[in-house]
Structure formats: C-alpha cells, structure tokens
Design brief:
This protein is of the alpha+beta class and about 100 residues long. The protein has a three-stranded antiparallel sheet with strand order 1-3-2, covered by helices on one side. The mean pLDDT is about 90.
Length: about 100
C-alpha cells in the first residue's frame, strides 16, 4: 500500500524529498508517471518513519486551512531569498557589462 500526497508545487515536492533524505527517509519521491510524494508501506517503512511524517502532514493541513498564514510565510521566504540573491544578481550584471562598476 502507498500513502500518496501532493504539495502545492513540484519544487516543494522536490525540496521535501531532498530534506526527508537528509533525515534518513528514502523512497518518498512519487511515481514517475504521476509525481507527488509517496510512502510505500508495503516496502516495510519503519513505524518511526511514519511517525516522523505525521507532524509534516499536520503542518501541511494547518497551512492549507489558513491561506493568510501560508501567504505570510511565502512572502517572508521570498523576502529572505531576494535579500540573499540581490548582491549576486548585481555582481553578475556588473560582470556582464549591464551595470557600470561603482
């Protein structure tokens, strides 16, 4: 039996699978023809793995139920990403000759 689920985007699914791998949870990538995520219960996933996924699932449902909080978190993350990226973008534009050296 597979427990399957989708996240709001393929990027989030890839990030989830990668981060889960860092925690020692493997094989959570969905089937190649449908994507998403899946935990293969028939492949003897340890109860600890299922228990580790439970808070993630709970948080997902909390965020889906509160679009305002989800938007706030996404906006906050976008702001942090922009702040990290801005110096790199400026440097690349300068190197490409799109900006004059200051």
């Amino acid at each position: 039996m597979n427990v399957v689920w989708r996240l709001p985007s393929e990027e989030l699914e890839a990030r989830f699978v990668a981060e889960a791998r860092e925690w020692g949870m493997f094989g959570l990538k969905g089937h190649r023809s449908v994507g998403g995520c899946r935990a293969s219960i028939y492949n003897a996933m340890e109860p600890e793995g299922i228990e580790a996924l439970a808070p993630i699932r709970q948080r997902y449902h909390e965020l889906i139920a509160d679009p305002g909080e989800l938007d706030r978190l996404l906006s906050e993350g976008a702001g942090r990403a922009a702040a990290l990226a801005e110096p790199k973008v400026i440097e690349m534009k300068r190197r490409m000759g799109l900006l004059l050296a200051s």
